[in-house]
């Protein structure tokens, strides 16, 4: 897989002998594949970085992309693919930047001629392939972590914990609750209890179309955990279907307070905490 | 061996656990506390576990035991400041800390003890001034 | 068992006294933070380690704990091995039942810590003692 010392010596000579021509030709090929989405100057800089990384590595003797002495080269490749992945380029558009080097090398080897020309080209092409694969791998890794980050951001967006009253916080849950989201919501709720020093929490599930056993368990565990911390949870807005599911699944809600609506739950909590709500005044003229 | 300090504030004993306790330290605290309740005649014990990043079954059992002992000695125990992650872990572990009263922080814990104590006094004054065991 | 590659060197801690159980907790916490477990997951795995290290001390008559980081694709994790050369566990199913104890505890050590981790393996025999391997993965 790796290039021998002589081969990499010749590669270094080829690439550094006509450095300007190599980078210009390389940039030219890449530019046509990217259809002007990156400026010529930026591309040239990227290509020059790669070029010098390859030359530096090949001057050290035999090249093995997985070896320690190729760390700089690997970093340059990873850098390129990270940048492209973040800018929204496709995997092909990214790896073509590496494979373009093959065309350049083909031209150079042909010009130089010599007995080793064919062997050299095959060896160089193999190295470029390896570099291409490596770039592809790091491209995919970057994309995966982007997706994971976005999923996390989405999770945060969709789980607000609001303060309803002095000492009362609420989580209005909206949409399908999967296990991961339920867990995040519950952790956030418990943390808010501590941060705001609120002894009451209302979990409103009016906007939740369905619950499964796991989600119901998460809600139950949260209520128990809140109790351990010295706070009380009230669940409000249980839809008829969900009530049926809960009973059918045999989930014990035990002595957990449930109320029909968020308003009922708030009234219940205020009464518990001794807040006097004003009596409704008879409206004049009504 | 480290010892957990017990502070007396008015009618309340405050224990703020600041170290990662070894089992021996936990047992020692249990003994020290029983002694201090009798010595001081305090009616309330607050155990602040804000600084504890875990509570395992051993510490959980210690908290339950302290609560039971102080009940026998006519003192109310409130455990305060349990972190959310600790509470979630305890639930998963299956530890329910039965018989322990909890509050979010020291302040709320004091209110809880004051309320419990006030109830008791009211009850004694209203019905029978000589009643010894007037827990509702 | 999930295939995993060890990163770095596993850390060992002998368990001979109460204080060693505290050291195991601190060691596991350090590693759990290093592999970026969430706060709740850190707490869970440290609690499980505390329970199991205490078991090693009380029931196994002391032994050793080894903490290592593991990797599986994008996920990293903590793997902890508790080994003792004690008498072993006579009835494993019973020992894994909530509330069962031979030592006057709450009987939640084994069964509870199994719920706190993602992978839980146990090998036990009167000749070789008990060896428990647990793994917690980052999410």
UniProtKB/TrEMBL annotation, chain A:
InterPro entries: Bact_StressResp_Reg, RsbRD_N_dom, STAS_dom, STAS_dom_sf. The keyword Phosphoprotein applies. The keyword Ligase does not apply. Pfam families: RsbRD_N (PF14361), STAS (PF01740). Gene3D superfamilies: STAS domain. Residues 158-269 form the STAS domain. It comes from the Bacteria. Keywords: Phosphoprotein. This is Anti-anti-sigma factor.
TrEMBL record, chain B:
This is Anti-anti-sigma factor. Residues 2-113 form the STAS domain. It holds the Pfam family STAS. It comes from the Bacteria. PROSITE patterns: STAS (PS50801). It comes from Micromonospora arborensis. Gene3D superfamilies: STAS domain.
UniProtKB/TrEMBL annotation, chain C:
SUPFAM superfamilies: ATPase domain of HSP90 chaperone/DNA topoisomerase II/histidine kinase. Residues 40-139 form the Histidine kinase/HSP90-like ATPase domain. It holds the Pfam family HATPase_c. It comes from the Bacteria. SMART domains: HATPase_c (SM00387). This is Anti-sigma regulatory factor. InterPro entries: HATPase_C_sf, HATPase_dom.
């Amino acid at each position: 897989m790796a290039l021998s010392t002589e081969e990499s010596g010749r590669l270094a000579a080829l690439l550094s002998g006509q450095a300007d021509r190599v980078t210009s030709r390389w940039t030219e090929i890449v530019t046509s594949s990217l259809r002007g989405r990156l400026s010529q100057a930026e591309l040239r800089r990227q290509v020059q970085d790669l070029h010098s990384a390859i030359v530096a590595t090949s001057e050290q003797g035999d090249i093995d992309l997985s070896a320690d002495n190729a760390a700089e080269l690997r970093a340059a490749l990873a850098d390129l693919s990270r940048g492209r992945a973040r800018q929204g380029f496709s995997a092909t558009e990214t790896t073509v930047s590496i494979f373009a080097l093959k065309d350049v090398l083909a031209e150079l080897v042909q010009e130089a001629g010599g007995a080793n020309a064919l062997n050299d080209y095959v060896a160089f092409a193999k190295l470029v392939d390896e570099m291409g694969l490596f770039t592809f791998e790091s491209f995919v890794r970057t994309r995966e972590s982007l997706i994971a980050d976005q999923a996390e951001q989405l999770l945060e967006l969709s789980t607000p914990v609001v303060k309803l009253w002095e000492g009362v916080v609420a989580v209005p849950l909206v949409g399908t609750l999967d296990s991961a989201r339920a867990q995040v919501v519950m952790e956030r709720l418990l943390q808010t209890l501590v941060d705001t020093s609120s002894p009451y929490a209302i979990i409103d599930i009016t906007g939740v179309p369905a619950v499964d056993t796991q989600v119901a368990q998460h809600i139950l565990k949260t209520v128990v955990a809140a109790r351990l911390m010295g706070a009380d949870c009230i669940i409000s807005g249980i839809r008829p279907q969900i009530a049926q599911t809960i009973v059918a699944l045999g989930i014990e809600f035990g002595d957990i307070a449930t109320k029909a609506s968020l308003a009922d739950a708030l009234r219940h909590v205020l009464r518990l905490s001794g807040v006097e709500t004003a009596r409704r005044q008879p409206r004049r003229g009504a | 061996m480290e010892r957990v300090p017990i502070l007396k504030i008015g009618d309340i004993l405050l224990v703020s656990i600041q170290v990662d306790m070894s089992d021996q330290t936990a047992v020692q605290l249990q003994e020290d506390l029983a002694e201090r309740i009798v010595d001081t005649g305090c009616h309330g014990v607050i155990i602040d576990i804000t600084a504890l990043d875990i509570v395992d079954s051993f510490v959980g059992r210690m908290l339950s035991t302290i609560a039971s002992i102080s009940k026998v000695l006519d003192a109310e125990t409130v455990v305060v400041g349990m972190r959310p992650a600790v509470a979630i872990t305890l639930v998963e572990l299956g530890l329910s800390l039965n018989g322990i009263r909890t509050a979010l922080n020291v302040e709320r814990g004091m209110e809880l003890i004051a309320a419990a104590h006030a109830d008791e006094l009211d009850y004694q004054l209203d019905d029978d001034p000589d009643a010894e065991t007037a827990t509702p | 068992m999930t295939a995993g590659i060890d990163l770095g060197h596993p850390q060992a801690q002998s368990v001979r006294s109460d204080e060693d159980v505290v050291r195991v907790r601190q060691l596991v916490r350090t590693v759990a933070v290093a592999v970026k477990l969430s706060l709740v997951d850190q707490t869970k795995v440290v609690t499980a380690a505390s329970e199991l290290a205490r078991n090693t001390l009380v029931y196994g008559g002391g032994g050793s704990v080894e903490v290592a980081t593991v990797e599986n694709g994008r996920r990293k994790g903590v793997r902890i091995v508790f080994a003792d050369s004690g008498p072993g566990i006579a009835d494993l199913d019973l020992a894994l039942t909530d509330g069962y104890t031979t030592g006057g505890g709450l009987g939640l050590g084994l069964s509870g810590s199994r719920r706190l981790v993602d992978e839980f393996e146990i090998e036990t025999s009167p000749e070789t003692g008990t060896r428990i391997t647990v793994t917690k993965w980052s999410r």
